[in-house]
Amino acid sequence: MQTGTFRGFDLTMHDPGIGLITFNQPDRLNGMTQGMKRDLIETILQAQMDDSVRIVVFTGSGRAFSAGDDITGRPPGAVGATALVPPIGAGHDNPIGTYDGLRALSQPLNVAIRNLDKISIAAINGVAIQTGFSLALSCDFRIASAEARMGSATLRFGLLPDEGGQFLLTQLLGVAKTMEFLLLNRIVTANEAHDLGLVHQVVPADQMMERAMDLARQLADGPQVSMRLLKRSVYNASEMTFAHALDDIASKTAISDHHPDAIEGMRAFQQKRTPHFNQWLEREATS
């Protein structure tokens, strides 16, 4: 996966196979642009196809995770940044342009994160609103700084949570609580978000990245193929009938049961030792 500084974010790699994406425009509260979203989508695609990447972590710089789309109209402050994909013309100046822009440019970012087989973690360091909030909800794990605040609040501008926030919230909160959350424009503290089930952990601000990376390393040491298949099966199950979910997990088990990690797991159990998973990845890295 290509590392460096891109439009609106930095990407660094950390052992064992942790890709850290840091939104790098704190003066704009890490507001997102179309170019930034397209580079993020390309980065996620690279992570998907690169065996050396096991976990992807998102976080922000300054006092925001991401406060949503950058609507200042100022050109992006991306000095020295590399564009992973070429720019395209704007297309939000008419109804069909807005529809196409959302379907082809904005929504695919959250789709890419949800479709990523590698486990994703949102380390929510500060404010996460609208686009930033839905991106965090698209991740598999969310660790929030005690100073973080989050919500959609699009109705304050007469707008909609158009990047999938209403779906993601409904999965986490249910219909009734999602109605309340969105229609009352709630922006909640980290502790309130934890009580609602929107984040998994709330930690002191000065410990947030350490805790997020500890979780990333723990997940990275797990049996990667089985974890990726299980992630997909859980998300599938949330939208399937029981019969379909049973068939889905059976087809995935037909892969995982015969994988070297499963053979190692059974051998370690019999020998009463800790399993050494992902030897297949280690061999790839040294070959």
Describe the protein's architecture and organization:
There is one protein chain. With 287 residues, this protein is an alpha/beta fold. 46% of the residues lie in helices and 16% in strands. The chain has two domains: 4-220, 2-enoyl-CoA Hydratase, Chain A, domain 1 (Alpha-Beta Complex), CATH 3.90.226; 224-286, Orthogonal Bundle (Lyase 2-enoyl-coa Hydratase, Chain  A, domain 2), CATH 1.10.12.10. The chain has a seven-stranded mixed beta sheet, sandwiched between helices. Strands 5-7-9-10 form a four-stranded mixed beta sheet. A hairpin with a 3-residue loop joins β2 and β3. The longest helix has 21 residues, at 95-115. The mean pLDDT is 93.
Q: Judging from the principal axes of the Cα atoms, what is the shape?
A: globular
Q: In terms of per-residue confidence, which ranges show pLDDT below 50 for 5 or more consecutive residues?
A: none
Q: In CATH, what is the homologous superfamily of the largest domain? A: 2-enoyl-CoA Hydratase, Chain A, domain 1
Structural class: alpha/beta
Distance between the termini: 17 Å
Q: Which CATH class of the largest domain?
A: Alpha Beta
What's the CATH architecture name of the largest domain?
Alpha-Beta Complex
Q: Strands of the largest sheet, in order across it?
A: 1-2-3-4-6-8-11
Q: Bin the helical content.
A: 40-55%
Short description:
The protein has 287 residues and is an alpha/beta fold. The protein has helices spanning 34-49, 95-115, 131-138, 165-173, 175-183, 190-196, 208-220, 224-237, 242-256, 260-270, 279-286, and strands at 4-6, 9-14, 18-23, 55-60, 64-66, 119-124, 127-129, 141-145, 149-151, 187-189, 201-203. The protein contains eleven helices and eleven strands.
